[in-house]
Design a protein that fits this description.
The chain is an all-beta fold. The protein is built from 1 helix and 31 strands. β6 and β7 form a beta hairpin. About 45% of the residues are buried. Bound molecules: beta-D-fructofuranose (FRU). Beta-D-fructofuranose binds next to β1, β5, β9, β13 and β17.
Length: about 500
C-alpha cells in the first residue's frame, strides 16, 4: 500500500524534476530529483542491477523529514531515476526514515534495513529523538514496511548504549544467519558499533560491540560498513566531532577506515590501523557493495554537514554522490580508484609527454569541466628539483581552483577559495602524500561542479564541490622555483547521443 505521504513525494517529483535542466546537474554523479539529499543508502545488487537509495527531502534544499530516494544503474555511471521508495509514514518512523542498507533475499525480495525516528517531548519540554531499526520488503520499486517495526530498539542494547543515538544499520546474510551492525553512542558520549544477529531479519539479539572509539576518534560513529578486503577486515565509520590529528584527520565530521582482522567464530575485531578515507572537503557517510565480479565498490555523499548550508541560494537540488570507487588494500593502505566503467565514457583524447614546464603554461587541447585527466609530474633530470608544481583548474580569469604539490614537504594542497563559493568557509585542504623522489601522479575527474583527485594510483582520494560557472574551463600548469617534467593524458567524458 502506498501511503498518502509517499504518493505526495512521488507526485512532487513528477511535477518538478522535469523543470530542472539536465545541464545544471553533474552528468554522471547521482543527484536527487529535486530538493535535498544526504547519505547514500541501500547501495546493493538486486536482480542483476545496482541500486542506490539516499536520504531525501524533496520539498526544499535543506534537510527535513527523511524519505528514501531511489536510483539504479548497470554500470555505476548512467543512473535511472526510480520513484521515491519510502516516506516517514508509520508510527515507527513518523519523524524520519534515516540511513540504512539493502539486501537481496534468497526468496527474490529486496530487504531494506533503516533507522526509524520518533520524537517525544519530555516532561521538561525538551524534545528527545528515539532511534530504532526497522525493515521493509519490496520488489525494487515498491516497499512494504514490516508491521512489527521497530525490530531492534534501545532495549536490545547493552546497558551503556544510548537509546537516542542508535542508527544506520548495515545488514548482511552469512551462512543462513542475518547480521546487522549499527552506530550507537555510549552513555559516556563516544561511538560504538553494535552487532546483532537474527534467523529471519525480524527477531534480533545483541551479540557484541565490534569496536568503539572511547572518545578518541570523534564521538558518535555514524554509518558503519564492515567487509573483508584483500585479506583484511575493514570497518568504515563516519565520526562526528573529530579532533584534528596532523594532516590525517581534520576537525569535525570525517570518514575513517579501521583495518584489522575479524574472527567470525569468536566475533572479535582486532583493529590494527586507522586512516582517513578521503582527504577532501566534500565526503561523508560512505557505504559499499560487492559486485558479482568481486569488486568492493564504495560511494559517499559528496558534501559535508559543516558547510552544507553554504550553498548558492537558488539551488533547486542540493547534494550529490561521489563517483563510485573500487577499493583495494595496498601496502596496508585503503586505496580507491574510479570504477573501471568510467573509461567507457572517454571521448576525445589529448596527450602531452615530457613537457618541460618553467613558469605557467597552458597546453593545446587541455581544458574542460567534464574530463578524466591523468597528470604525471617529475623532476627535470637526475639530481634536478623544483619548489612546487601547480595545476590551475576551472579558470576564467576570475575563478580558479589550484592543486599545488610542494616537493620539500610532499604535501598536496587543494585551494578552492576562488572557485565561486559565496561563503567564507573551509576551502583549503593539505594532504600528506607519499614522497616518491618528486614524482607525483594525479588522476583528476571533473563532472561540471565536482572535482575528485586520485593520488598515485588511488593511494589517496580527495573530493571537492566547486560552484564555478560551467564555462570556466581553462587549465594551466605551473612550476615554481625550477623546472618540472610533465605528462598529461586528458579525455573528455561523453554522455550525449553524438559520442565520438
Ligand atoms: C549521517 C546521518 C545519519 C542519519 C542521517 C540522517 O549523515 O546523520 O547518521 O541516519 O544522516 O539524515
Amino acid at each position: 500500500m502506498i501511503s498518502k505521504r509517499l504518493q505526495d513525494a512521488r507526485e512532487f517529483e513528477d511535477a518538478y524534476v522535469p523543470k530542472i535542466d539536465e545541464e545544471e546537474r553533474p552528468a554522471f554523479h547521482v543527484t536527487g530529483g529535486i530538493g535535498w539529499i544526504n547519505d547514500p543508502n541501500g547501495f546493493s545488487v538486486y536482480r542483476g542491477e545496482y541500486h542506490l537509495f539516499f536520504q531525501y527531502h524533496p520539498y526544499s534544499n535543506i534537510w527535513g523529514p527523511m524519505h528514501w530516494g531511489h536510483v539504479k544503474t548497470h554500470d555505476f555511471i548512467r543512473w535511472e531515476r526510480l520513484p521515491v521508495a519510502m516516506a516517514p509514514d508509520t508510527p515507527a518512523d513518523k519523524d524520519g526514515c534515516f540511513s540504512g542498507t539493502a539486501l537481496e533475499l534468497p526468496d527474490g525480495r529486496q530487504l531494506l534495513a533503516y533507522t526509524g525516528v520518533n520524537r517525544k517531548r519530555r516532561d521538561d519540554g525538551l524534545i528527545e529523538e528515539y532511534q530504532h531499526q526497522c525493515v521493509a520488503f519490496g520488489d525494487g520499486i515498491d516497499y512494504e514496511k514490516y508491521e512489527g517495526n521497530p525490530v531492534i530498539t534501545g532495549e536490545h542494547l547493552p546497558e551503556d548504549g544510548s537509546h537516542l543515538d542508535f542508527r544506520d544499520p548495515k545488514i548482511w546474510l552469512e551462512n543462513g544467519t542475518f547480521y546487522l551492525i549499527a552506530g550507537n553512542r555510549t552513555r559516556r558520549g563516544s561511538g560504538a558499533i553494535r552487532l546483532f544477529e537474527s534467523p529471519d531479519a525480524l527477531n534480533w539479539k545483541y551479540v557484541t560491540t565490534i569496536d568503539a572509539c572511547h572518545n578518541e576518534l570523534g564521538k558518535m560513529w555514524e554509518c558503519p560498513d564492515f567487509f573483508p578486503l584483500d585479506g583484511k577486515q575493514v570497518l568504515i565509520v563516519s565520526p562526528q566531532e573529530m579532533e584534528p590529528q596532523g594532516l590525517e584527520f581534520h576537525a569535525g565530521y570525517g570518514s575513517i577506515a579501521l583495518m584489522g582482522s575479524w574472527d567470525s567464530e569468536k566475533k572479535v575485531f582486532d583493529r590494527e590501523k586507522v586512516q582517513s578515507i578521503d582527504y577532501g572537503i566534500d565526503f561523508y557517510a560512505p557505504q559499499t557493495l560487492l559486485t558479482p565480479d568481486g569488486r568492493r565498490v564504495m560511494i559517499a555523499w559528496m558534501q559535508n554537514w559543516t558547510t552544507c548550508n553554504c550553498k548558492p541560494p537558488k539551488t533547486r537540488f542540493f547534494g550529490q554522490m561521489t563517483l563510485p570507487r573500487e577499493l583495494s588494500i595496498r601496502d596496508g593502505r585503503l586505496c580507491q580508484e574510479p570504477v573501471r566503467e568510467l573509461i567507457n565514457y572517454r571521448g576525445r583524447r589529448v596527450h602531452w609527454d615530457n613537457v618541460m614546464v618553467t613558469g605557467n603554461t597552458t597546453l593545446k587541447g587541455v581544458k574542460g569541466r567534464l574530463i578524466d585527466m591523468t597528470v604525471t609530474i617529475r623532476p627535470a633530470g637526475v639530481g634536478a628539483s623544483y619548489g612546487a608544481f601547480q595545476i590551475h583548474l576551472a579558470q576564467d580569469g576570475e575563478h580558479v581552483t589550484t592543486i599545488r604539490y610542494k616537493l620539500a614537504t610532499s604535501v598536496l594542497r587543494v585551494d578552492r577559495s576562488r572557485s565561486g563559493f559565496p561563503y567564507d568557509i573551509v576551502h583549503v585542504r593539505n594532504i600528506p602524500v607519499r614522497f616518491r623522489q618528486g614524482e607525483l601522479k594525479l588522476r583528476i575527474v571533473m563532472d561540471r561542479n565536482t572535482l575528485e583527485i586520485f593520488v598515485n594510483d588511488g593511494e589517496q582520494a580527495a573530493s571537492f564541490i566547486l560552484y564555478t560557472p560551467i564555462t570556466s574551463d581553462i587549465i594551466s600548469f605551473e612550476t615554481i622555483d625550477g623546472t618540472a617534467l610533465l605528462d598529461v593524458e586528458k579525455y573528455d567524458l561523453k554522455f550525449g547521443p553524438t559520442e565520438d
